[in-house]
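User: Here's a chain of 617 residues. Predict its fold as tokens.
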Amino acid sequence: MVFLTSHCDEEFENNYSSYRSNKILEERFIENCIQVYKEDPSIVEGICDLLVALAQKHDSSVSLIKKFTLETNTALSIFKRLLKSSRDYAVYYSIGNIADNTCSDFLLKQYNAGKIDDEFIFLYRNYLNRENHDYFYKKLLSLYGDKFKYNESIDYNLISASRILGDLEVLKSLSKFLSDTKEIFEEFNAEYLSYKDIGEWKRNIDINKDAFRNNIVPRMLQDFAHKIGKVTYKDIEKRFDIEEKWEWFVVLRLIELINNKVEIDNWHKKFIIDWCNTEIEKCDFKNAVSNNQGGGVTYKQKEFAVQFFWQKLNFPVSQEVMLDMLSFDWSGLYDQTDKDSNLSDLVISRLQNIELAKDRILNNMRNGISVKGVLESHIRQCKKLNIYKATEEIFNSITRDGINNFTKVRVVDVYVQLGGSICDFKNIISTLDPNLDYVWHIIELLDNQDADFAIKLIQDKVETIKSNDKFNAMKYLLNYGDKKGFHLLISHFFEVKADLPHMLDNKISLIKYTPEILNDLFKVLLLSYSPLFNKQSQFDKCSSSVLSLLVNFGLYSEGNFIKVKEAFQSFIIQNQSSEPMVKDLYYTINRLENSYYLQKGDVLSINNVLGEMKSLV
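Assistant: Prediction complete.
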């Protein structure tokens, strides 16, 4: 929390991929904070600090904290903390984003008590998020008449639409952009502007008077001031002193607008297509994606922009360029719900000759693909296009470290679907780590082709398999009546004191009787009576499971029936003094006998009954 608060301003300049940071913050960090709050409510203090820090540096990220306040019902407590903070743009902006109706009610009580002045009410009204604004504003009108009324009614949708049109208009002309920039400096009558100055100007301007204004100019000033401390008009002129710099700025802003579902006009479409046609000759899509030290990917922005616009506007490019774009898709093995997010799918749908795509994919894989996501995307297309010739390359990708082990489970399936034999892995599987998901998946598939080989492999490896898969390995051996699996399972039970339900899945009958197996089961049964088990839950589950196993074992043959029955009687005699409840096992003996004779179809004689009654005395 402290680290993120102090480093939240570290973004890459002109790096469009920074939009991913919001996703990471929302899905990982905020979710973790919500879980931590349940155990430690004091995390709210850190959330307040982070909220203000984000407001100072990254306005768009502040709204992510809203998810925390909604899930934890902490909006009012955070609101009260912020009210005690020193008042500046960041605090106002934070308050406005997280406040809900309960916060508004509290604020009005504070105002009526004389603890809040008129100026703050005006600021709160202007900063308050849209979903709670109407509630607060109606209360102001009902309580104080026109005192806090806007000059005229506000149509936020119209204002938003007007500013978007302003954004599009200002991007058509550098001179227009500079004149709007200069106008802001003139309003301040200052040579230098800070990040805070521009933020306050954005929030405090008359919203009706300035409805025509664009968002891009003040945002650019704020971003630039954040990077260099204070910004002058000459700094902005220098920033765009050559045409290429201005064009790139327009390109990045248009990407953002299009991503936000803004409909661009013909002027901007022509600008985009002309720019792409000029820059596409300089693009190297085949080498534009690379691995970075953090385990992710780094991509060249010019190539990103060209393919982005090509996806959206579908202007003509050569088949060779489209084939090169196959190397720019790192979306991986899994199909996306949004087709646009899979560049290679779009390339293939727009190519006139699908065979060209198949050949390029196969050649790329044969030449080697170092980026994991790009390799996985190629494998996905091998599956979709039935590129059977790629099985050798897919096999090699499974045995190398280029793809993560979990994804390799899917890759193994693709290999088999394209005609590869699972038995091809028999020569190498003994060298692979048995604790990896895809190795265990291979073993399961081998079982269908060569069960003897799979059993021998597990027998050799079961001692080295870790806890995650060891249980499955032991059950697998039991499925084939392997005694080693049973003894390992019992040892595992005594080691971890785990519950036994469904552990053996009634496979005990597949194992040939030995005194050791019977002794092991009765050891577990005795342990189930001990204080190690909760008498209301694990006791019943554990004991009933073992008893079912013993009964099934006794039903397997007449010899088993006699030995199990004798073992039960001996167990009761040996343990009834220390564990009185073992006497209930006489009912189990009776169940065993009834089941055994029903299974045989025999009818008990009076002598049989008398003999059994004597054994109970």
